[in-house]
Amino acid sequence: MASLAPLLILIFAFFANPNFLFFFAPTPIPILALQNDDAFSSIEEDWSILFRQDYSPPAPPPPPPHPPSVTCEGDLGGVGTVDTTCKIVTDLNLTKNVYIEGKGNFIILPNVSVVCLVSGCEIAINVTGNFTLGANASIVAGTFELYADGASFSNESSVNTTGMAGNPPPQTSGTPQGVDGAGGGHGGRGACCLTDSKKLPEDVWGGDAYSWATLQKPWSYGSKGGTTSKEVDYGGGGGGRVMLLVVGLLDVNGSILADGGIGAPKGGGGSGGSIFIKAHKMTGGGRISACGGDGFAGGGGGRVSVDVFSRHDDPEIFVHGGSSIGCPENAGAAGTLYDSIPRSLIVNNNNKSTDTDTLLLEFPYQPLMTNVYIQNRAKATVPLLWSRVQVQGQISLLCGGVLSFGLAHYALSEFELLAEELLMSDSVIKVYGALRMSVKMFLMWNSQMLIDGGGDENVETSLLEASNLIVLKESSVIHSNANLGVHGQGLLNLSGPGDCIEAQRLVLSLFYSVNVGPGSVLRGPLENATTDAVTPKLNCELEECPVELLHPPEDCNVNSSLSFTLQICRVEDILVEGLMEGSVIHFHRARTVTVQSFGAISTSGMGCTGGVGKGEVLSDNISSGGGHGGKGGDGCYNGSSCIEGGMSYGDADLPCELGSGSGNDSSLTAGGGILVMGSWEQPLSSLSIEGSVRADGETFGNKNVIKQYVIAEGNGGGAGGGSGGTILLFLRALAVGDNGSLSSAGGHGSTGGSGGGGGGRIHLHWSDIPTGDLYQPIASVTGSIRTGGGLAGNPGGAGENGTVTGRACPKGLYGIFCEECPSGTYKNVTGSDRSLCYQCPADDLPHRAVYVTVRGGISETPCPYKCISDRYHMPHCYTALEELIYTFGGPWLFGLLLLGLLILLALVLSVARMKFVGVDELPGPAPTQHGSQIDHSFPFLESLNEVLETNRVEESQGHVHRMYFMGPNTFGEPWHLPHTPPEQVKEIVYEGAFNRFVDEINTIAAYQWWEGSVYGILCILAYPLAWSWQQWRRRMKLQKLREFVRSEYDHACLRSCRSRALYEGLKVAATSDLMLAYVDFFLGGDEKRTDLPPCLNQRFPMSLLFGGNGSYMAPFSLHCDNIITSLISQSVPPTTWYRFVAGLNAQLRLVRRGRLRSMFRPVLRWLETHANPALRIYGVRVDLAWFQATSGSYCQYGLLVYSVEEDDCISLTDGATQTGQQLRWGHLKEETLLSRTLRSCENNNMRRKKIYGGSLDTNSLKMLEEKRDIFFPLSFVIHNTKPVGHQDLVGLVISVLLLGDFSLVLLTLLQLYSISLANVFLVLFILPFGILLPFPAGINALFSHGPRRSAGLARIYALWNVMSLVNVVVAFICGYIHNSTQSNKKLPKFQPWNMDESEWWIFPVALVLCKCIQARLINWHIANQEIQDRSLYSNDFGVFWQS
């Protein structure tokens, strides 16, 4: 069915028009098409395109009747026949037209020429086969026609019709007349070198163009060039005709020429001829040319049309004009190249400069051309009036191309240009008349569009419309001396320096964005307009505001009756980085306008030279300044005669007047113009100015306002300054940057005495000013707004300042920019005056509060305020602490309530304590039986002699000796035993095994490094925890020692077999404070020694060491367990000894380390007054002694017990041993110690003993030296005291103070929180939580069972209490720093006792006092718990011992 489609089409066409097939009858082409499938399909495609109303190459015109075909061999001298293959093997010279027809192939062999030199000679070849023109072969004729199935033009071959044209079509003027030597015309006009000063270069040409109607199928001869002689025709001949109709492949590697003939130096060049090529496919890179011939004046180019469906290579196609010898800058006009497939018209002059036009006459409408290219210095013109140039694609002007509409000096018509795209690069469009352009995209690169309205009112308005994009780059210009409207729906972009759109009246509309790049210009009117330009009408004498300035029309059309010279209408966003200049500039229905740093919108000096407020002229051309917003400056001549400046006029609240000039006719200066942005109905959304917006008056001698003006005296005349114009802004938001300026200043007068111009008027008419919570600042102005008057030369007067006004502001707002009234003021009326913002009542403002502005301003009283800091709380600006205080009635009532609450809570705690703890155990009688266990009913100090696991009855009969550990059992100086066994045990131990035993036990007694590290860290962070850690590690260490001796050690050092077998004979024990430890040696029972164990008298003198170290946590105490009691009971009754130990410990607990010299004196007196008198009865005496247990500085103290008979026989000799310890003099000075002489007693029945050490008496105490640590000052706060009794009352007061302390801590933290949260963290964590922990520690101590536990926990509580002073000091420092930084702030008076910043010290000081009192009460509480028998401190000897 597909193969029958062309046939059906032909049948249909025949019935519609029986003459349809007549076109095909004279030629075999239809027969060929029907016989060849490929050709048939080609025709099918062509017809299908036709019916789709797209591309349809027309059939070639029917050839004229031909003579009968010549024969191959007979007429042409060839080989073969034309119905098979005809080969031309030799050169062939013809003298007449030749028609060759056949069904075979036609071949012209290489190097063979077929020539017919007769002008207009025609050679026609019509074959159904292929045509071949061999290499270097040529055909020369006036006309060459080829009809073939395929054709090939080999390398260096040519078809040449140059200068061989016949007669051009009748009624054409392609051949120039006269003897000017002009070029012939055809596709383009021929050039003419005639110089006529009265004519423009484009008004002079040679032969005219013709055959526009056959543009798609050119078939006209070129025209002959003119001559410069009447006698001799020197003109070059016109180009011939070439038609190639090839069904299949056309291969062009040679040349196809139809150029104009070259004129002699005295003749014009002939115009190019016609070339029409139609083929399905074309290859090769040959040359196709229909150029004008060179001559005195170049001939115009011819016409070439190419209808090739498929091009694989691009042959060179030329249609340019010929060169002109007589005028090299004016070559012949370019011809035309029409490409039928894309329907493109190309006018290309091959970069030959010319003033001669290529005429573009009526453009076809069915179908429309797709593209038009004018390039390479081609110059085309559309000469017909009221013409339309319409294409479907683009119109492109490139590389010096010029397109003109109309005729110069005859601007009588409007022209239309319609295309998808208009592209210009280094090219020009000239319009004489008016242009209505409608494209989608308009791009200009270093190009110009010049519109000359010619002053004709009928054609004074041009409209350029680009729906998508208009871009000007590289100094591109659109210029009109009439009215110009530029419309679009996309972007208008003037990219950079030199880009310009200017007209006498310019309207830009409907774009979504207009960008005026750096150095580019939008201008209306023109700077230097000619007399034939349309002149905008300025209402200089009109005192009323033109209605279109306030209510502009909505259509955005160019209207000559309106006042605008530059209007931007219905544009969304406008960006100005260059210059916008005009007399009356109006922005209508715009959204945003942004003026960048180097951008400017200016009407400066473009107002009236006269006007309502024009200046007056004095003699010598001295004139006063023009007036407007301010009066113009006076003009003075020689200081003697002056003339008043121009008057002030216009409405400051709604100005819309032009500035006035000086009125001097000889040297005029103009006032500023009018700039209006927005309208009543359509205000501008936002205006941002980083550059300048100006409507300044003109300065004498300078079109623009000068930046620096030097006043100089002189007598020369000159005009006064023009007044500033009007800037009227209907807008919603304004931003003027640091370098931005909004100016309507007056111009400066001449230096000869002319007056300065008055300032103009600026009015900001705000639209929809938000109020209340919706308010946002509508203006941000950091740049300048100027309306100052212009300066004047001496003795002239300066112009007065103009006005800057704004719309009346609503309530709460004031000023030109409708800002919020300042803090502390309110405004309850409408207006802009600052005085309408009244002061808020001062009595309504609380202390520590300041008035604040609120969004939308304050319209009514009371005025809002805020506290000066976030640490104060509304509405009274109290701190959190003050809110608490004043919630309960103020400081005094709050204090009373707090005190009452504390007492009540303390009573509740006391009742709960009594219920929980119960009644303390009452003291009972001392045990009387020897060796019995100590009764726990005794006072606590009487039971201090108890140690771990010494509460069971010991068999003292087997006790040999007690060996004390050396060292205070600290992490730095742990317990250790000396390696040398004491003399008392040498008989029952093996010395070597003893040394190994000592090594093992010393290793166990030593501490690990990390234990000391933890202790050191805790000492820094929390000393009570460090003490608890140390006691826990001491307890663990004692447990390990006891476990080792009891179960792990094999007792190998003992001589007794029984002891080694039963793991007996050694026992490790320690005092309750875990600072003094010892090893007891016992007999095993199998020694058979009558001298062992020794009796008490044999043990004298005997040393008993004190436990503790005299500190608050470990006071000195005499350790006396059952073994010591049993030994002493050999001479002293146990009850007496118990009472002695209780009394001594009561005295020792008052001794404080750091003050031993003063604190040991009461102990010495008590020994002499209470102890030794009672013990002397039993033959025993005790002395206070000191012992240095280590090689370090640690010194131990204790008692030296001896019999009364030895009182004068005790000797102190170096080198002896006592209790296995090395005792040497430590802190007593050596001279004093050595002064004691060695005495011996001969009546002594005991063996001599030598001991290290020294007794302490009144004299030796004076020489005692001791070190004091950094914690010594705390001993004045926490120390052991005598009991005061009233235990319940003391507990109650402690409870009150404990609760008060905790309350003060909370109040202090609340106060610090009011200052800063960081201060709270500092107080809490330096030391960590030290300020909070005394409360739980105190509660724990108060609610503990038993006096012994209660006293121990109370000491921990005392430590926490004194350590928390560090946190209190930190709180004091924080308060002091805050008070120092706030001391310069003066606050108004406030109600009395308000806990203001000046009382910041109250709570820290109260805490210090509370903690000091607590410390005192805790000391009493501990004393009451530890000493329940107050007779221990009795000064009466009888009372003490009787109790």
Keywords:
single chain, 1443 residues, alpha/beta, 47-stranded mixed sheet, 22 helices, disordered N terminus
Number of E-state strands: 70
Low-confidence stretches: 1-57, 704-716, 919-954, 1208-1251, 1386-1394
| Beta-strand content estimate | 15-25%
Q: Sketch the major β-sheet.
A: 47 strands, mixed
Number of helices: 22
Averaged pLDDT, please? 83
Overall 3D form:
elongated
Classify the secondary structure makeup into a structural class: alpha/beta
The Rg value, from CA coordinates, equals 63 Å
How much helicity do the residues have?
10-25%
Taking the alpha carbons of the first and last residues, their distance comes to 147 Å
Give a verbal description of the structure.
The chain has 1443 residues and is an alpha/beta fold. Helices cover 21% and strands 22% of the residues. The chain has 22 helices and 70 strands. The strands form eight sheets. The protein has a 47-stranded mixed sheet that branches. A seven-stranded parallel sheet has the order 3-6-9-12-15-17-19, with no helix packed on it. The chain is elongated.
Give the topology, please.
Layout: H1 5-16, H2 29-35, H3 37-51, E1 79-80, E2 85-88, E3 92-94, E4 98-102, E5 105-108, E6 113-116, E7 122-127, E8 130-133, E9 138-140, E10 143-148, E11 150-153, E12 158-160, E13 241-246, E14 249-252, E15 255-257, E16 274-283, E17 287-289, E18 303-311, E19 316-318, E20 336-339, E21 344-348, E22 358-359, E23 371-375, E24 379-382, E25 388-390, E26 394-398, E27 402-405, E28 414-418, E29 421-425, E30 428-432, E31 434-445, E32 448-452, E33 461-473, E34 477-488, E35 491-494, E36 500-509, E37 513-516, E38 521-524, H4 547-550, E39 566-569, E40 573-576, E41 579-582, E42 584-588, E43 592-595, E44 600-602, E45 635-637, E46 641-643, E47 674-677, E48 686-689, E49 692-694, E50 726-731, E51 734-736, E52 741-743, E53 761-766, E54 779-781, E55 784-786, E56 803-806, E57 813-814, E58 819-820, E59 825-826, E60 838-839, E61 849-851, E62 865-867, H5 880-887, H6 891-917, E63 959-964, H7 991-1005, H8 1009-1021, H9 1023-1048, H10 1057-1062, E64 1066-1070, E65 1077-1082, H11 1096-1099, E66 1102-1107, E67 1117-1118, H12 1122-1128, H13 1134-1148, ...
Parallel strand pairs: 2-5, 3-6, 4-7, 5-8, 6-9, 7-10, 8-11, 9-12, 10-13, 11-14, 12-15, 13-16, 14-16, 15-17, 16-18, 17-19, 18-20, 21-23, 22-24, 23-26, 24-27, 25-28, 26-29, 27-30, 28-31, 29-31, 30-32, 31-33, 32-34, 33-34, 33-35, 34-36, 35-37, 36-38, 36-39, 37-40, 38-41, 39-42, 40-43, 41-44, ...
Antiparallel strand pairs: 1-2, 20-21, 45-46, 57-58, 59-60, 61-62, 63-65, 64-65, 66-67, 66-69, 68-69, 68-70
